[in-house]
Design brief:
Elements lengths: L5 H10 L10 H21 L3 E2 L1 H4 L1 E7 L7 H10 L6 E5 L3 E6 L4 H14 L7 E6 L1 H30 L2 H25 L2 E2 L1 H28 L11 H11 L1 H26 L3 H32 L3 H20 L4 H5 L26
Amino acid sequence: MAGMTFAQWGNDLYTGRRSYPIVQRRKRWFTIVGLLAIASILVLGIKGLTLGIDFRGGSEFTVSGVSTTDQDPAVEAVQEVLPGEEPRVAVVGGSAVRVQTEQVTGDDETALVDALAGAYDVEPSAVSTSFVGPTWGAGVSTRALWGTVVFVVAAALFMAVYFRAWRMSVAAIVAMLSDLLISAGVYALIGWEVTPSTVIGFLTILGFSLYDKMVVFDKVRENTADLLTQSRSTYEERANLAVNQTLVRSINTSVVALLPVAGILFVGALWLGAGTLRDLSLSLFVGIAVGAASSIFLATPLDVALRAREPKIAAHTRSVLAARAELAAEGGHEAELAASATGSAQLIPGSHQGQGAQPRRRRGN
């Protein structure tokens, strides 16, 4: 790409003058995604998600106006009152410390307030308390699970109706679920608490992922509308052309979405401490990045893997490759194209030039 502008690169991808064999290397992408999914499952199984107090219930103490945000005094104060307790301590802003424990009531609660106030040299009135019951936590968890299930089912039905192809729907849902699994694995690995804001972030990235995949699949459908009426290219090649044509759009959309989220994430993590902004931005940042990658490297290659098993698609592919082999044996201008059938399988410069050669959407009557 030396000396080539981003716009020229994008134009070459759209017209077919330049192309990357993304779909043709689908086994490589499937292997990578599979390894990431297995790693995420292992992390979730061994380390697990760190559920916030809204999900597990318990007591929360916030010490405001502290001169130091060191977490050790809070841990020592809690264990002095409640031996054996392992509190979750986090910094909130630059002058507050949040301490979460199991349910604490009565004299223990009063003693813990006094201990935290003494540990950070503040008045007991500077220590605020709140309590989340286990019933509330179970209700929040159930609603979060149902929200995810309803979204996935609705998305699957919508895509099946919109594209009139259940294989595209399956490919999109598998890719979305892999996005969710890998994002959850990263979240578990980092160890930040899962809060309602995190769940909102996960649902948001599912929406972003679905939108990105619909754009790519819509181009696949456009390119393959007249597939069986021609003998110049296969379904795999037309689908790969669609991925290349939408590659610049996917990159632009992802970068535009990631930049502000990255700003919120780093500001929230480094300056503002734990809180809603940090919880939400981490899930968004990881999910958007993973979703954009799966739209390119997983969704369409998986659709091609499923469609290639259809008898009519398989028969068409065999006929196209047989015709190329015959042309290659005879020699001539199409020999180079035929020779590439088992490689990148892309339409090459000299055989595919300009917009006139592009598949076009059929117009209704």
